[in-house]
Amino acid sequence: MDAQPNSPEARDILYHLHAYTNARKHQETGPMIIEKGEGIYVEDSNGKRYIEAMAGLWSVGVGFSEQRLVDAAMRQMSKLPFYHNFGHKGHSPLIDLAEKLVKMAPVPMSKAFFTNSGSEANDTAMKMIWYRSNALGQPQRKKIISRKRGYHGVTIASASLTGLPNNQISFDLPIANVLHTSSPHYWREALPGESEEQFSTRLANELEQMILAEGPETIAAFFGEPVMGAGGVVVPPAGYWEKIQAVLNKYGILLVADEVICGFGRTGEMFGSQTFGMKPDIMVMSKQISSSYLPISALLINDRVFEPLADESNRIGTFGHGFTGGGHPVAAAVALENLNIIEERDLVSNAREVGAHMQKRLRELASHELVGEVRGIGLIAAVELVADKATKAPWGQPGALGGLANGLLQQNGVISRNMGDALAFCPPLIITKEQVDTLVDALKVSLDAAAAQVR
Ligand code: PLP
């Protein structure tokens, strides 16, 4: 790019290494700089406005200009800008938030523990699970099963749980004791003629075979997102979670629901666990908990986890884990206000109703020559593009068509993200049906333009 010397673009290239970015290519393309946000829209440094159809990173539930969250932050910042919860100390926003989360949980939960990101929360979950196994006198029970295409973060442990190549190649991951079972993507993975139920049964059998081969007494937990997000928005097929949970229960294996994307309304229920009948022992939550106005994440643990953990901390003298910023009072105050807004404005119902509209409108594109599959639930969806609908073959390199369409869509005023060839849509929970129509119209125009380029 022709960045003016000393412009923000030029200084970005000089000084800033971006997350999830091709660092070499960035030296040519430079950044897209977002300056401000309002409702479901953001505006770039050229004054161009976009529908933020990813809610930032699947996270800005209440939109980009919620004054109540600003006020909540200011109030708490003036009163107590920082305190922690180490060594029996505490503060009111965190106690209020812990109580609220435990009471909101769809299954009986015992305690909330606070961290700063989804990755840290999953890392913490893994440590708690190992600690628990030791507490129970089962030191061999340390293996964790997650899924190919699952996403649980980028720290050493959580990137190991993640089942995506880019998070592991050249990072020397995954670490030991993490196993990956198949992704539940029916459209891609099912055998010819296999029904959704049959596919789910096959995956549950495969999981059981893995457990038996490893030794059931060595398996501690299974991690899964109710709906996979970053792996391409994979909605589980019929009967999937019921069958998986039957296997886990048979062998006394804990279930961790990674609600980092699904939590707080995304699927049209407060939690994805409700939508799919999951009964987790640990729930991991972040993102929409504070609409990402400030970083905060939380784990809810039930008594199956808390009781042995408490015993072990008593034996050792402390639960030797915690982050300086974990449960930060300003972030906790913002999260509380954000959850109040989600409840008062019934944004979960909005996600259900406007989400149904979005799913219907997107499915109208299923007949488009480039569309292989449209999938999703509530206000989360993906449109997967193919060059050949019959063989599901990509256009050139996997991801090339997704990248092309994503770029065109951005030119047409909508920010999405392509996970390979799947364009993801996860707009703020406040989106209206009219705004969804604008989004889908822009997508249609962009797909037509992409088709013209590739044919
Ligand atoms: N778990 C899920 C399901 C996620 O989608 C993400 C992030 O996208 C994470 C964990 C990691 O969260 P963070 O980026 O806050 O570390």
TrEMBL record:
> Looking at the keywords, is Transferase present?
yes
Gene Ontology molecular functions: adenosylmethionine-8-amino-7-oxononanoate transaminase activity; pyridoxal phosphate binding
**What CDD domains would the database entry show?**
OAT_like
Reported cofactor(s): pyridoxal 5'-phosphate
Annotated keywords: Aminotransferase, Pyridoxal phosphate, Transferase
Tell me yes or no: is Transferase among this UniProt entry's keywords. Answer: yes
Pfam families the UniProt entry points to: Aminotran_3
Q: Which InterPro entries match?
A: Aminotrans_3, Aminotrans_3_PPA_site, PyrdxlP-dep_Trfase, PyrdxlP-dep_Trfase_major, PyrdxlP-dep_Trfase_small
GO biological-process terms attached to the record: biotin biosynthetic process; gamma-aminobutyric acid metabolic process
Q: Which NCBIfam families match?
A: PRK06105.1, PRK07480.1
What family is it from? Answer: Belongs to the class-III pyridoxal-phosphate-dependent aminotransferase family.
**Know the name of this protein?**
Aspartate aminotransferase family protein
Q: Native species of this protein? A: Pseudaminobacter soli (ex Li et al. 2025)
The beginning of the lineage is: Bacteria, Pseudomonadati, Pseudomonadota, Alphaproteobacteria, Hyphomicrobiales
